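Today's session is about reading a structure prediction critically. Students often jump straight to the picture, but the first step is always the sequence itself: look for stretches that repeat, for charged clusters, for runs of hydrophobic residues. Only then move on to the predicted structure, which in these notes is written as discrete structure tokens rather than atom positions. Here is the chain we will use throughout the hour.
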Amino acid sequence: MNISTFDLNLLRVLDMLLREQNVSRAAERLSLTQPTVSNALARLRDLLDDPLLVRVGRRMRPTPRALALEGPIRAALQQIEQTLGGADGFDPRHSRQQLRIALTDFAEQLCMPRLLAVLAEQAPHLRIDVLHLAPNLPVDALDRGELDLVLGRFDEVPARFDRRHWRSETLRVAVREGHPEVERTLDLDTFLNLRHLWVHGGQTRGMVDQWLAEQGLARQIAYSTPNYLQAAHLAATSDLGVVLPTQLATHFARLLPLRVFELPFALEPFDLELVYLTHRQHDPALGWLVQRIMEIG
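Below is the predicted structure for this chain, in token form.
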């Protein structure tokens, strides 16, 4: 292929088609007509000698060739935007950019209500898409440009990423009001005798169970879930105890019939961090968003 005759605008269309996997939505996101995007897809198929997107049922799915192109094309477009943009090229009040963040439902509850208030005032057209955060740092999704930023707790972060401390959190125990086994205080024996709901987040062992194992102890886990918010509601309507981050436990104690106690043993606080690719630190839109999140930490 002769790159000098290749219309590079087609790469923007291909990137959006691979994001949306739908011609109409891609056209809307690009502020183009559907026929224009359909014609661009036809040209791409001819130039690359591959169907790129094929219909499977009611949806379009990328071919292996398209999947192989997706990451490099997205990274190249991001590099171009960063090179040409500069700090003065981003106007938050008028920007219609889309930024994708991965985080747990717990971090979403902590961060997003206040961030949305900031965005409504300062960047009303900026679009934030939230994706669920798995236990490990999603390095591949960040490398491919499928994610711009993650907010969570990470033990190891590769050197090619920047990590910024957002806030520290502690843990508390929550049980329903009127729980038959818990009175005014919660000591270790009572804690161990409880049937527990564990929010695992995809982990095989959390901070609490690690500490207990080091003491030769164990608790009875009767139910596990990846969702902090659901866990609080389940604890409020059962005799299960649940360990929750302090801010979340306090929040739900105001809304649900829950009582909150300190852990009957000492654990170090854990840190929540913002992580993004180092080469994107000069991306004006991402930099602006990171600064706003840091300010509400």
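Discussion point for the tutorial: The chain has three domains: 3-85, 93-164+278-295, 171-268.
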